[in-house]
């Protein structure tokens, strides 16, 4: 004979606020004790949600502004590229003409048919055209790139957008942390906090998946040598209309101090035990799901 308790196979989970919630209180609690929920369904919303929602809206607006700036930069760069190409074409087309004018002025001045002032004007015009061509070439190189998105101004605008996107994702993650969701499909067992309260050490609520119930029993150390997985187990308790049945699934390997005690005054209170798990049959699982944590007495059929 051994004492045990009825538990979900997944054990009872204490659902707490996310890390970093600080002193946030519960704003909404859309579930009740006994509510069956799907995985990911909202269990609670913290009062930090409105502020975080506003921060996300601001971050999304910043993303939109940065995206518009990137689009505008791409258009401006494309226009500047076309303008630089046109300027370079004009400058390169003017150079041969101005070179011929300069050469003619040099020849005429050598023959005394042109004044030094005329030669100086032709030389200045040519030099200015050379400088203009160099400026147009440099501008084109700055605006031009094999990949338009790798142009320096576009790259800078894209990095700024990336930063805004990261800030938006961070704001979304912060907002998500203000919403507590079910880690799996299951049932709300006990509410430990209500709207307006700050969750304590027990968390917001206890939660479990009741479709697969077990009994965790504590077997006295001097009885464990006779235990065999698969042995039939009968579980009784005053709260049960009829015994529950199952089979011994696993036997622990660590000797521990008992946590369950019999109400009898003569019962041992500091025994050493091994914990074992009893898998319940379908009918017993349905009955056990209504009495999670119920203390039961287990009788294990002797091994042949």
Notes on the structure:
This protein has 304 residues and is α+β, with helices and mostly antiparallel strands. It is built from four helices and 14 strands. The protein has helices spanning 49-110, 116-143, 152-176, 282-288; strands spanning 2-8, 13-15, 26-28, 36-37, 42-46, 179-181, 186-191, 205-208, 213-220, 232-236, 244-251, 256-257, 272-280, 295-300. The strands form three sheets. A six-stranded antiparallel beta barrel has the order 1-9-13-11-10-14. A hairpin with a 7-residue loop joins strand 10 (232-236) and strand 11 (244-251). It is rod-shaped, with a radius of gyration of 41 Å. The model has no long low-confidence stretch (mean pLDDT 86).
Give a quick rundown of the structure.
This protein is of the alpha+beta class and 304 residues long. The protein has 4 helices and 14 strands.
């Amino acid at each position: 004979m051994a004492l045990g308790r009825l538990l979900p196979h997944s054990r009872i989970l204490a659902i707490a606020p996310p890390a970093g919630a600080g002193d946030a209180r519960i704003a909404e609690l859309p579930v009740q004790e006994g509510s069956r929920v799907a995985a990911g369904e909202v269990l609670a919303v913290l009062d930090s949600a409105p502020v975080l929602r506003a921060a996300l809206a601001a971050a999304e607006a910043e993303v939109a502004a940065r995206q518009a700036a990137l689009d505008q930069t791409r258009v401006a760069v494309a226009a500047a590229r076309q303008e630089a190409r046109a300027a370079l074409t004009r400058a390169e087309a003017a150079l041969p003409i101005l070179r011929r004018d300069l050469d003619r002025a040099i020849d005429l001045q050598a023959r005394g048919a042109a004044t030094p002032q005329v030669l100086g004007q032709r030389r200045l015009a040519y030099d200015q055209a050379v400088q203009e061509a160099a400026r147009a070439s440099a501008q084109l190189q700055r605006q031009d790139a094999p990949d338009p998105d790798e142009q320096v101004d576009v790259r800078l605008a894209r990095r700024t957008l990336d930063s805004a996107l990261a800030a938006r994702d961070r704001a979304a993650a912060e907002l998500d942390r203000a919403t507590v969701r079910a880690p799996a499909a299951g049932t709300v067992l006990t509410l430990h906090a209500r709207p307006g309260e700050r969750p304590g050490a027990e968390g917001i609520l206890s939660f479990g998946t009741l479709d697969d119930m077990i009994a965790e029993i504590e077997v006295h150390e001097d009885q464990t040598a006779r235990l065999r997985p698969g042995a039939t187990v009968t579980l009784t308790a005053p709260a049960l209309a009829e015994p529950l049945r199952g089979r011994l699934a696993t036997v622990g390997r660590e000797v521990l101090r008992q946590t369950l005690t019999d109400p009898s005054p003569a019962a041992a209170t500091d025994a050493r035990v091994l914990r074992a798990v009893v898998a319940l049959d379908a009918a017993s699982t349905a009955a056990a799901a209504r009495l999670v944590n119920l203390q039961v007495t287990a009788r294990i059929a002797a091994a042949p």
